[in-house]
Amino acid sequence: MANVQDMAWESKAWPFEEARKLVKRFEKNKPESGYAIFETGYGPSGLPHIGTFGEVARTTMVRTAFEQISDIPTRLICFSDDLDGMRKIPDNVPNPEALKEHLQKPLTSVPDPFDTYESFGEHNNAMLRRFLDTFGFEYEFYSATQFYSSGKFDEVLLRAAKNYQAIMDVMLASLREERRETYSCFLPISPKTGKVLYVPMLDVDGEKGLITFIDEEGEKITQTVTGGNVKLQWKPDFGARWAALGVDFEMYGKDHSTNTPIYDKICRILGARAPEHFTYELFLDDKGEKISKSKGNGISIDEWLTYASADSLSYFMYLKPKTAKRMHFDVIPKAVDEYHQQLRAFHDQDLTQRLNNPVYHIHNANVPTSDMVISFSMLLNLASVASSDNKEGLWGFIKRYAPDSSPENNPQLDEAAGFAVKYFKDFVAPKRQFRLPNEKERVALEDLILRLSNWSEPTEAEVLQTLVFSVGKDHQFDPLRDWFKAIYEVVFGASQGPRFGGFIALYGVKPTIDLIKKSLANN
Prior knowledge:
Shape: elongated
Strand content: 5-15%
Structural class: alpha/beta
Number of helices: 23
CATH architecture of the largest domain: 3-Layer(aba) Sandwich
């Protein structure tokens, strides 16, 4: 019988595809460190956004897939470029005026506008770590400020000084002519103001590891490249970081893809093998614009967790990483319901199907059982008609539909009920637009009321769905989706929803009749 390791070599799941590339990387030579090192980079210029979580989640999926087909131990490093100068003030911080005097200083030298940490960089690092810890990621956190100042980066920085011209040749070939005149891969940190200086080098002494430049006051300064006195420009820093840490795998967004040859060349110039890469498509907000840390657009991790479980977010991140995704509140209900559909399917699948199921990778093969006897979309509709301010108001309907269910026996459902009430109040209720039925729709709805009034069959969702379907067909709705759309627009003030037969079974035949009558009377 084939085992997981054997079947994983045939799996089309993208984490296994990436993991297999790493196994081939080590066929001739095992990693010098003894570990396969995975890295994710983070620019803490603003509060962490959901794309940052996605990068770590997806990297973790590849890491765990690799661990299932290789005996090489792994490490995951989360690296924060907090020595980067603050080039602009984020839009989503309190008292932004107070930060103006600190522009161009390293983020770890900028006061924390939230007054909770010693610096803005430390604040944002703490937010990132809190988010990652919420999801139980296993990682090692590296701060660029500590990495540079502690001397851990010194060896690579000295190599960069010795190979300064080779690195500059790579960089200058990628720059516009006017930018070439002032560019340097080294960014000195001013001993006077503490600002990161974007100035050309007058001289680089590769043997001594010294650089000479004109500072912001016009004075000629010579200082060492070690000990945190300089940082590298962000593109050289990518390749240098790979060399210093011995990185074997890193994924990043599509906006980095054109720079990959630059990162690789610099890594090799500094004496290391370039890692394997994976490029994912960008996350977009509701307007189709790229999510930005400084703008704070899109949806945050905390916001998602206000309305849905962490596992549903991980599921969303798994899906089609090479396809651009809208990250807005309206994607949440679908993600929740699809996640639980995959959970229910998993336990009846064979090994090949399981390895291709997203939940296998979300839960690292330890897949739980779904207790969601009612979909999230259905809970939203129930919240709509039940006028409940809390999840307890929904449980009377839920228990009538599923008598054996309870908050204790169905903790996932109980949690989802609470989320549904919040989501309905914040996003569904404000946008509801009830409309008048046309004559054809009114006649069909009255017929549905009549048939439900005479209903004597079991109140099973599929049987009731067939009844609703028959009404639409008898009244010649073509396509039939226009009939269901009419139901939802007239009764719920929304253009779509879950299967109406299931709603009737949940809400009850008599209450549904009353609900339709009320909708027709109000219209």
